[in-house]
């Protein structure tokens, strides 16, 4: 019996600890499992050590040793950090070779462009298969600004059979670097829960921030804005939950503690598992997304599927997602403390139930089954993947 050809996913985002710290990783895991309903899937992913493991039915994972700290935060001019980066680059390339040669392989899909697209490109060319690339904001808006890296990024994107981006503006910016057509393909997770309790029609309201505590995510701006709310404003708020983790942890803990000391109903939580995150969204009335830089975060599509309106800053694709009628939330007029404060005032003055129809309509645009069909069609070009 002929062994069916596999799809190899090369990624830097895949769950390791299962503690909710890998939001994008949960999406990639869901995608791999969905794809495995159609073809065998081998995943190249970071881990605590080089290893090979069975993840789910039809999904095998080839781990490469990688530090918990993201490569983008390492200092290449520092000898110790430069050595760490070099080790990861070698380990990732080796794991990609192992995955592609573990059996018949039809196609390689890189999530994301660098370094994963580089690994996929080298191995795919060596073994005569095609590869595709799905870009993330950090690929284009951070690495794409470095001249030598931008040149490498262009080659990786240009030579791919298909190129996708998980945001509309990101698609356009990727296309400008690649000099080739790029398609929009939203990243989204599988949602297991449904909202059974209607959104509130009167205060007090429950607000939720769920994400990385990183400057790009604007958690510091949000906490400053919360500190400026008046006693009257707080009388309309049942609680504000801050969940996640990241490099701004000392700042977050300090400012939340100050708010708590002032008698504000603040709840501080760490990273949430998938079930905990969904439950937190179902127990909230607004999701707060105060980002400085953003495409379309997975947490946004999660919220839409769970019928939770958002309060977001006007970055990335949010102006085109939040504003169109029927609206699915509130869009701040800027990316600063004053604008976020104004948006919070609007949120606690408008029943979240007013945005239920908009959230339901937006949810239909983020279906993992649709992404799976597009990827399989791309992988089938010139291969035996069905």
Structural notes for this entry:
The structure is a single chain. The chain has 386 residues and is of the alpha/beta class. It has 2 domains: 6-188 and 367-380, Glycogen Phosphorylase B (Rossmann fold), CATH 3.40.50.2000; 205-363, Glycogen Phosphorylase B (Rossmann fold, 3-Layer(aba) Sandwich). It contains 15 helices and 14 strands. It has helices at 23-35, 79-100, 113-127, 137-142, 147-159, 168-178, 219-227, 231-234, 249-261, 274-282, 298-305, 318-322, 337-349, 356-363, 368-380; strands spanning 6-11, 41-47, 51-56, 59-65, 105-111, 130-135, 162-165, 183-184, 205-212, 237-245, 266-269, 286-289, 310-312, 329-331. The chain has an 8-stranded mixed β-sheet with strand order 3-4-2-1-5-6-7-8, sandwiched between helices. It has a 6-stranded parallel β-sheet with strand order 11-10-9-12-13-14, sandwiched between helices. Helix 7 (219-227) packs across helix 13. The protein is globular. The mean pLDDT is 91.
Rg result = 21 Å
CATH architecture of the largest domain: 3-Layer(aba) Sandwich
Number of strands: 14
| Quaternary structure of the protein | single chain
**Tally of separate helices:** 15
Task: Give the CA-based shape.
Answer: globular
Helix share bin? 40-55%
Count the domains.
2
Classify the beta-strand content into a percent band: 15-25%
> What is the mean predicted local confidence, pLDDT?
91
Order of helices and strands: EHEEEHEHEHHEHEEHHEHEHEHEHEHHH
User: Which structural category do the helix and sheet elements fall into?
Assistant: alpha/beta
Characterize the largest beta sheet: strand count, sense, and whether it forms a barrel: 8 strands, mixed
Using the coordinates shown, work out and report the CATH topology of the largest domain: Rossmann fold
The termini sit apart by 17 Å
CATH superfamily caption of the largest domain: Glycogen Phosphorylase B
Poorly predicted tracts of residues? none
* Name of the CATH first level of the largest domain: Alpha Beta
Strand order of the largest sheet: 3-4-2-1-5-6-7-8
């Amino acid at each position: 019996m002929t062994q069916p050809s596999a799809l190899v996913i090369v990624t830097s985002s895949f769950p390791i600890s299962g503690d909710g710290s890998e939001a994008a990783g949960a999406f990639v895991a869901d995608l791999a499992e969905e794809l495995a309903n159609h073809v065998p899937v081998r995943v190249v992913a970071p881990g605590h050590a080089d290893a090979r493991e069975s993840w789910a039915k039809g999904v095998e994972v080839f781990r490469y040793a990688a530090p918990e700290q993201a490569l983008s935060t390492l200092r290449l001019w520092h000898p110790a950090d430069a050595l760490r980066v070099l080790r990861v680059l070698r380990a990732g390339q080796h794991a990609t070779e192992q995955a592609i040669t573990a059996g018949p392989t039809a196609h390689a899909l890189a999530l994301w462009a660098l370094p994963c697209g580089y690994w996929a490109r080298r191995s795919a060319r060596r073994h005569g298969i095609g590869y595709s690339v799905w870009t993330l904001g950090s690929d284009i808006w951070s690495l794409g600004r470095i001249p030598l890296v931008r040149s490498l990024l262009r080659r990786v994107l240009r030579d791919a059979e298909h190129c996708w981006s998980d945001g509309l503006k990101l698609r356009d910016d990727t296309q400008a670097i690649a000099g080739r057509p790029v398609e929009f393909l939203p990243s989204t997770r599988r949602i297991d829960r449904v909202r059974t309790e209607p959104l509130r029609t009167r205060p007090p309201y429950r607000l939720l921030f769920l994400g990385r505590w990183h400057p790009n995510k604007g958690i510091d701006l949000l906490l400053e804005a919360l500190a400026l709310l008046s006693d009257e404003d707080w009388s309309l708020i049942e609680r504000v939950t801050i969940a996640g983790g990241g490099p701004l942890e000392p700042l977050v803990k300090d400012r939340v503690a100050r708010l708590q000391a002032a008698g504000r109903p603040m709840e501080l939580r760490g990273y949430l598992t998938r079930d905990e995150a969904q439950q937190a969204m179902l127990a909230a009335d607004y999701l707060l997304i105060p980002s400085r830089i953003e495409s379309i975060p997975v947490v946004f599509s999660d919220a839409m599927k769970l019928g939770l309106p958002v309060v977001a800053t006007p970055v990335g694709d949010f102006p085109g997602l939040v504003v169109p009628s029927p609206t699915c939330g509130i869009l701040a007029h800027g990316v600063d403390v004053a604008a976020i404060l104004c948006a919070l005032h609007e949120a606690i003055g408008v029943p979240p139930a007013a945005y239920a129809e908009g959230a339901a309509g937006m949810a239909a645009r983020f279906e993992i089954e649709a992404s799976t069909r597009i990827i399989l069609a791309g992988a089938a070009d010139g291969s035996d993947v069905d």
